[in-house]
Amino acid sequence: MTSVSLLGPGDEPIVLGVTTPTAPVRVPTARRYLMCPPEYFTVEYAINPWMDPTQPIDTRLAVEQWTALKDTYERLGHQVDLIEPQPGLPDMVFAANSGTVIDGQVLGARFRAEQRGPEADHFRRWFLANGYTSVVMPERTNEAEGDFTWTGEYLLAGTGFRTDPMAHAEAQEVLGVPVVSLRLVDPRYYHLDVALFVLADDLIAYYPEAFSPGTRRVLRRLFPDAVIATAEDAACLGLNAVSDGRNVVLPVEATNLAEQVARRGFEPVFVDISELRKSGGGPKCCTMELRD
């Protein structure tokens, strides 16, 4: 066994325990992401337990952290497309909530909170202006990749706080992929993407206590070798991570989770999202994957 030393956001070395020599060789795949600069980011309302409008927000710092995240993706060889931010929509930076794209088919979003409602149409127009010919706007409430996670075989679909369970059937019809419904029960983890993420096609990481007992049984059946996150991992939004099949971009505080994924042959890549976390968002929330 060998120790793993990585660079954190400030280029300081971070040592992460050990890797296992028998871990699979992980191969990254180039991805294409859509992101929105947080030019108007602030917390002026509360629609999840993380948001407190009475606390100060440093928009400049949020922009710096978001830019470091974007630069990280590009350094790893991924393409990043941008959508223009709009005044009055401070949460538009969380691009993952506004569309689900599989094989070039787009299912748009319908937000539960009225404050975020207008975001959906801005993204719809971006898709149409950028060559997407099949864009369907949903009839049921769905907050896109906030609650829809593609494994390569199944669309894992969260419900319980935001996305209407009937939206799962709608997603299956529009996207033409099998859907597995998962029920969230902890309001801190109001979206699936803050409780679970896909490491590779056959492997996920998740926090069991975020899910109902029946959903936990489903996840154990589908992913018996899953990485199990701790309460500390979940509390820093460590599961709001992005994997390209080898590199795993996750919050700098999620050191236990990083050590676990390193043992499985993945390469943890730390980013600081502390300012964006004040609105309940992390790396994945800022990142919509365009699967063309």
TrEMBL record:
Pfam families: DDAH_eukar
BP term (GO), one: L-arginine deiminase pathway
Keywords linked to the UniProt accession: Hydrolase
An MF annotation (GO) of this entry: arginine deiminase activity
Protein name as catalogued: N-dimethylarginine dimethylaminohydrolase
